[in-house]
Amino acid sequence: MDPTNTELYKLVLHDAPYVIAGYGVLWAALVVYVGMVLRRIMRLEKEVLILGESVERRNAE
Amino acid sequence: MKQLKVAIVLLVVGGLLTTAAFFMAFYTAEVQRFGTITVTEQLDTAYPLQSVSADGFQYGRPWFSQKIFYFHVPVAEASFLVFGVAAFFAIRFLITKRREYDTKSRMAMETSLIFVVLTMITGMLWTRASWGIWWEWEPRLTTYFIMTLLMIAYFVLRNSIEDEERRATYGAVFAIIAFIDAPISFFITRLIPSSHPIVFQSGMASSNLVPFIVAQVGMLMVGYAIYTMRMGEEILYERVEAVKEALED
To answer: Which chain A residues touch B if contact means CB-CB below 8 Å?
Structure first.
């Protein structure tokens, strides 16, 4: 490879891990957090349904 | 739930916008330069030659780590804005004493804390790549670090108080006082000498400005979506607790 280009690539490659980590951490954190919230919401919605049925059964009795 | 559907739509649109900004940042945004590099041979490239000396040909050093800017700044600005929303609802709670404002303030604070942590992480990665160090006690970093600690302290304070009304009142007062640090942290680089770059001080090429604005809009959408989802979750949780109590009676 051309030595000057090698020099330029080295400069970019020095920063690359930090740039990749920056974007990676940011996206991963947001996706994981949103996933956790959605899972909790789905669980709570199920719970609301089950409890609603229990209330209806109790009222019918 | 209508609110949840709106949140998911905003999340998808925000996600698409930030992804578009990501590609623009790497494909269309002008490469910024930071310092110079000297090479022995002239490059056969469009990259601008700055000067020629006995040592060789001097070119602007391509500042690849600057690419973090397109996500780091939108996340940071979103953190300030959402923190402002938390302080606003805290004031409304103190005026009205309505519980829903306390919940809104807490949810905004939680959303802001996520953004603050992400700002700190992306900022430290940028600092390491650009300055060669992970941290420097300079004005912007220090005031932002204080803001992070204040936010953590807000949740510690809330968890340490059992009485619901006292917890909400102390939390609201703390959130308002803590928010004073946000404008200080935002403007400090313009008021006293700081090694932290000042965004927009010397203008920005449109190829850099467009991805930044797209990322900013997208990040605000993601922030609002997270806040709405957490609010939805809290409402559901309160409903479940109310039904459980009704069943126990």
So the answer is: 2-5, 7-8, 11-12, 14-16, 18-19, 21-23, 25-26, 29-30, 33-34, 37-38, 40-41, 44-45, 47-48, 51-52, 54-55, 58
